[in-house]
């Protein structure tokens, strides 16, 4: 799933912050991670679902899906968006999704993501 890397990063960062505050012993880290991952995934899927359905149809209409069955064609779509080029194209087309993803990436790795990359204005549409 396109969203999974972002939710995993956010969960890792949250648990690290909780442990640094000494909350790791008072709480169930596995339960916190599971609950946070579920909540973030639902929220992000809700935000991105219309866009992903639209893009799935665009892929269908432009002949970019492979497979004989609906399941195979959906897998083709997911596989393409899971690759760097596919995800980059999606995020360039929909900068709001890019902003959400960058926010979660920044949450996950604030010391590794330069702020200038996160605050870069969207590229002009081609």
What does this structure look like?
Helices cover 72% and strands 0% of the residues. The protein is mostly helical. The protein has one domain.
Lay out the secondary structure.
Elements: H1 4-20, H2 29-61, H3 70-82, H4 84-93, H5 95-108, H6 115-118
Strand content: under 5%
Order of helices and strands: HHHHHH
Estimated radius of gyration: 17 Å
> How many helix segments?
6
Shape: elongated
Number of domains: 1
Question: Helix/strand/pairing class, anyone?
Answer: mainly alpha
Which consecutive residue ranges, at least 5 long each, have pLDDT under 50?
Answer: 113-122
Overall mean pLDDT = 77
Query: How many DSSP E strands?
Result: 0
Helix coverage percent of residues? over 70%
For the sheet with most strands, the description reads: none
Termini separation comes to: 27 Å
Defining key terms:
6 helices; 72% helix; 126 residues; 0% strand; mainly alpha
Sum this structure up briefly.
The protein has helices at residues 4-20, 29-61, 70-82, 84-93, 95-108, 115-118.
């Amino acid at each position: 799933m396109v969203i999974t890397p972002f939710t995993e990063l956010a969960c890792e960062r949250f648990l690290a912050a909780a442990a640094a505050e000494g909350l790791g012993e008072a709480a169930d880290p596995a339960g916190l991670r599971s609950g946070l991952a579920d909540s973030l995934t639902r929220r992000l899927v809700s935000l991105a679902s219309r866009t992903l359905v639209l893009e799935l149809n665009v892929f269908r209409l432009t002949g970019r899906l492979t497979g004989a069955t609906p399941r195979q064609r959906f897998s083709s779509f997911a596989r393409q968006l899971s690759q760097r080029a596919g995800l980059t194209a999606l995020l360039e087309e929909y900068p709001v999704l890019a902003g959400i993803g960058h926010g979660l990436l920044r949450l996950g790795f604030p010391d590794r993501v330069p702020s200038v990359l996160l605050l870069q204005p969207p590229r002009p549409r081609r």
